[in-house]
Every structure is written in C-alpha cells, then in structure tokens.
From TrEMBL:
Protein's UniProt keywords contain Cell inner membrane: yes
Transmembrane regions listed in the UniProt entry: 6-26, 38-57, 100-120, 276-298
Keywords annotated in UniProt: Cell inner membrane, Cell membrane, Membrane, Protein transport, Transmembrane, Transmembrane helix, Transport
Identification of the protein by name: Outer membrane transport energization protein TonB
Family, as annotated: Belongs to the TonB family.
A Gene Ontology molecular function term of the record: energy transducer activity
NCBIfam families referenced in this protein's UniProt entry, alphabetically: tonB_Cterm
Main location, first listed in the record: membrane
Ranges where the TonB C-terminal domain occurs: 373-469, 513-604
Compartments it resides in: Cell inner membrane
Length: 604
C-alpha cells in the first residue's frame, strides 16, 4: 500500500510538472486571466485524476493461424524444469524491519500533521476575528473591521480590513478589489489549494500551482477594478502603499499580495490577441502522453509470435525431431533406449490436447504420479515386455518412437498415442507396451487427484548400443531431488565433448559447505522486494543455472516464475553465488545444470 501511494504521488507530480511547464512557458505572460485560472484548476485536477485511472486498451491483432499457435501449450518451462537437478526449496519471508520508504512515510506524516494544524489554526483565527470584531453589511458583503493590523483580505463572502485601512481615503478601491475576489469565488480555489498543499506538501509543484493561482486572482481583481470607475494610476499607488503594510494572512486573498512588480506590469500591459489561444492546443499531446504513460492498461490478446523460435527450448539431442505436426508433443533428453531386448529409460512430462480437456491435464503437479516400485521397476517392466518386431528387424528399420499418454486420476494409463513414429511395426510395439502398463499411484495437485501427461521416447536400434557406464548417483543427491525430477536420477550421460551441459554426472558439483550451507546462503542474501510485499505478491520461483567447469555459476534463468520483482530478486541472488566445487564425468570437469525453487511467502 505504501509503495502504491508513493507511486501515485510520483506520477501526479510528473503530471503537474508537464502541465505547469506548459503554463509557465506559454500562458503565464498572457492577459487571458480567466482562461489561465480555469487552465490551472483543471490541469491540477487532471494531475490528480490521471494516475488513478485504469483505462483498458486492447491492441488489435490478427489471429495466428499457423502451427506455432498450437505449439504454445507445448513449449513450456516444465520442459527445462524437469531436465535439471532439483535442489531443496528455499523459503523467503517478508521482513518486518523498517525500510527506507517507511522513513519517508514518517517524515511525510510529520509534515502532514504540522500543516494540518496550521490550516486549522487559520480557520479558527478567522472564526475568532469574525466574532470579536465589528461587522458591517454592505451590498450583500460582510465587512469585518479588525483591531489587528493586517492588510485587507477576503474569505468567502467576508472582507477583512484593519481599522486604519477602513479610515483611509482610498478605501473604496480596496473594497472594490476585494469584492471581485468575493464575487468570483476565489476563496474556493484557495481552499482547494490549501488542502492539496497539506496532503501533497512534499510535491513542489503543488506549491507552484498555489502561488500561480493567487497571482492570477490578483490579476483578475486588478483588471476588473481598473476597467471600472477607479483611476489606474491612483490604484497603482494604493497597491504600492498597501504593500508596505503588515504580515499577510495566508488563507485568503490579500490586497497587498507580494506580486507588486508583476501586478503593476500587468495593469499597463496591452491585451494579448485571441489568436494566442492556439497555444492551448499543446495541451492535447501532453494529455495523451500522460494517459498512455499512467492510465492506459494494455490488454493484449494472448498469442504467439510467428517470429518466435521454439528450437531454443528443445534439447540438442532431440532437435532432429523438432517439427510442427498437428499433434502437439514435447520431448526431452531422457528417453528409452531399446536394443534387441535391452532397455534403459527415463520419462518426462507433457501437456497435450488429445481426448482429455486441457484444463484437466497437468504437466507438473504437487505430487507427481509414481509407478509401483519406482522408476527402476518401470524400466525392468518395459525391458521385459518390449519385443523388437521381426518385420522391422528384417527390413532393418530403426529409430525413435515418441509415445504420449496420460496417468489418470485413478492411476490408469489412458489416451495413449504415437506422437512421432518410425514405422507401423515399431509404432505398434511401442503402443502395445505402454498400453499394458499397470496402474500408477495418481498425481495430486493442491490436495486433489489430477491427470498428468507424459511422453515416453523409445529408441529402437538394430546394432549394439554404445554408451558409457550408467552414472552412479550418491544417496545425498537422490535425497534432495523432488517429485518429477526423480525420473531424471537414472539418466545416462554421453560424453560428447567437455562443453556439454549435464544434468547428472559421476561426481556432482558441491556448494562450499554442502547443501545446507547453500540454502542458508540463498536465504541470507535474498531480500523480499518491497513493491511485491506491499502489493501482496508471493509464490514460487524456479531458477535454472549452470555450475561451470571452473565452479562459477552462469546462465541463470527463470523457468517458472511468479511476480516480476520476485523473479528479478531470485535471479540477482543466484547470479551472485560464490564458486562451487565443479562436477566431474569420467575424471573430466564438466558443466552441470541445477534448478532451485525459491518460495517467497508473506507473513500472515
């Protein structure tokens, strides 16, 4: 809330700055006093209104008919989320300590209190003067003759003059001047400005507006008087004499207002030609700029850019299968390798739109479905059940078959289909085995059973499958891998070159002091963003990063975010991590990717 108020004050000040600059540069020296009064009051109101407006503005967009639009649900952060090591969650709560903006708030409240007391004191003083001094009724105006030596001023329908001024020969011109203030309701302008200077006292442009309004009021009164029966030269002398009087009363229009030189200059100035009013057209672009900056809220239709490249989300090992087929699927580096009766496997999540409503399918759930006995049992089951089709073997047909399926709310495997096939024989065999999978333990999201979609890549190869030794995962690593990332613990790594990005290696990178020290370091260095806390934003941010061969941390990016400020803070901290002990594969230091979930939670 506090930051929202600060933002409103800042935006209103910017609006006032633009409008007042227009007045000061083009209108201040003109003799269009009535127009200047209206301009100042209206632009002041606009400055307060524009930052509070929320005008929906929707950009026109042509519907995207290409296959890119259909792939929007496929290319998601879950792909990268599942393909990196999952570290333990770090929870960050909003601190209760006093922030810099709260100090500003304290200073503002002190100023607000003092100015409010001054305003109330002036109102009480007016009431006392009205009750304790001589009052005379003249032509619908109440004349208050004061014992105190104050220059003449008016407030509402009352004109206050000292006893000395009341007896002066030139009192008629003074009375005529103050009567203009009463007749044109100048007091209402001043009351509005006085309230605004109390509330927005920290904004210098409010004080400039107040000074200019008082100045314009005096110009209006002077112009009205000299165009009447009063001699202009005598009137100027009265102004000069009155200026040498006592203190001014700040809550009213004073005859001796301290703009002496300007008032006398305006009295002798030639009237500004009406063609000069064309300058008011400059107001239109300023209003449009301010509205577009602070008021318009763009609600652009969700769409996919035809220039957007999805290849950056596809792992290098699977880019050869990247296509825009009508059926939507997503694949990852984890796959089932089947070589004449021998298989190693991995599974990755997918969202698709076949047969089951999209809003019933999850890519990531709080509790992912689990195969009875775990991933190793699933691998054994597929290895035992899969048979290389004789016709495919005879025709020397090989390749990867991508099979998509959904684990239903009751754990059954359904909606099985081939996303990308090789041949009818291989496709049929892959479908047969996947359809025969026994029931899983269903997934849950927010306590409810949900459907979760998967893709299973099956690699049929006729020749012996050459791959390095399976990577042995230490138990401490297994213990800190969560949910869907469990399916990645049995991945196989191919040492193609030393610059390859790994998910799992023989010797995993280690933060100085271990995983517990990592969590403490992240929690200690994170700061809950003030704006996010004030606006009630919280949530979980998943950050993927690489631990390089030299132990440095790089390539941090958000793969599943929350609020913009929360995302930026998470990236800032991850990018500032100290050096790790690098990971090794077959004795060679390699780059390894990690994912860390950071949960921002407000104290409630």
């Amino acid at each position: 809330m506090v930051t929202g108020v600060i933002l409103y004050f800042l935006q209103s000040a910017i609006c006032m700055a633009f409008f007042y600059a227009l007045y000061w540069l083009f209108l201040k020296r003109d003799t269009f006093f009535r127009i200047n009064r209206v301009f100042l009051m209206l632009t002041l109101a606009a400055s307060l209104l524009i930052p509070s407006l929320k005008i929906p503005f929707q950009l026109e967009s042509n519907p995207v008919t290409s296959d890119y639009a259909m792939l929007d649900a496929v290319v998601l952060t879950s792909q990268q989320y599942l393909s990196a090591n999952m570290l333990e969650e770090v929870v960050v709560t909003a601190d209760n300590h006093i922030n810099w903006y709260q100090y500003i708030g304290f200073v503002y409240l002190i100023g607000l209190l003092l100015l409010t007391l001054r305003f109330l004191k002036n109102l009480i003083q007016l009431f006392i003067w009205t009750r304790t001094n001589k009052r005379i009724r003249e032509n619908g105006v109440q004349l208050v003759v004061m014992k105190d030596d104050y220059p003449p001023f008016s407030f509402l329908n009352a004109i206050f003059v000292s006893n000395q001024d009341y007896k002066k020969p030139g009192f008629a011109s003074i009375l005529a001047h103050e009567r203009v203030h009463v007749d044109q309701l100048h007091t209402f302008d001043l009351l509005v400005l006085e309230v605004l200077t109390v509330v927005f006292w920290i904004n210098p442009f409010v004080w400039m507006y107040k000074s200019s309004i008082q100045e314009v009021h005096e110009y209006l009164a002077d112009d009205k008087v000299v165009n009447g029966s009063v001699n202009p030269n005598e009137y100027k002398m009265h102004i000069v004499n009155q200026f040498a009087g006592g203190d001014l009363f700040r809550l009213a229009n004073n005859f001796g207002q301290s703009t002496l030189k300007k008032r006398i200059s305006m009295l002798g100035k030639i009237k500004t030609p009406k063609i000069a009013l064309v300058k008011l057209l400059l107001l239109l672009p300023i209003v449009l700029v301010l509205l577009s900056a602070f008021a318009f809220t763009i609600e652009e239709e969700k769409k996919n850019s035809q220039n957007f490249s999805f290849k950056e989300f596809i792992p290098d090992g699977l880019k050869q299968f990247y296509s825009f087929s009508d059926r939507q699927y997503s694949t990852y580096d984890d796959e089932l390798h089947f070589i004449q009766g021998s298989a190693t496997s991995g599974i990755s999540a997918l969202k698709h739109k076949e047969e089951v409503s999209p809003n019933q399918i999850y890519r990531i759930a709080d509790e992912m479905p689990e195969y009875p006995g775990g991933i190793n049992v699933l691998k054994k089951y597929i290895t035992n059940e899969m048979r290389y089709p004789k016709k495919a073997e005879k025709n020397k047909t090989e390749g990867k078959v991508f099979v998509s399926f959904v684990v239903g709310k009751s754990g059954e495997v359904k909606n099985v289909y081939v996303n990308k096939g090789v041949s009818p024989e291989l496709d049929k065999e892959a479908l047969r085995v996947v359809k025969g999978l026994p029931k899983w333990t269903p997934g849950k999201h927010k306590g409810n059973l949900v459907n979760v979609a998967y893709t299973l890549p099956v690699d049929f190869k006729l020749k012996d499958f050459a791959i390095e030794q399976p990577i042995l995962i230490r138990k401490p690593v297994l213990a800190r891998i969560k949910n869907a990332s469990d399916y990645h613990t049995d991945n196989l790594a191919k040492l193609e070159n030393c610059n390859q990005e790994y998910t799992v290696v023989e010797k995993m990178p280690e933060f100085p002091g271990g995983n517990g020290s990592l969590r403490k370091w992240v929690a200690r260095n994170l700061r809950y963003p003030i704006l996010a806390a004030e606006q009630g934003y919280e949530g979980k941010v998943y950050v993927k990063f690489n631990v390089n061969k030299d132990g440095s941390v790089s390539d941090a990016k958000i793969i599943k975010g929350a609020n913009v400020e929360l995302n930026e803070e998470a990236l800032r901290v991850i990018n500032s991590m100290p050096y790790w002990i690098p990971g090794e594969q077959q004795g060679i230091k390699v780059k390894v990717s990690y994912t860390i979930p950071i949960r921002f939670a407000l104290n409630k």
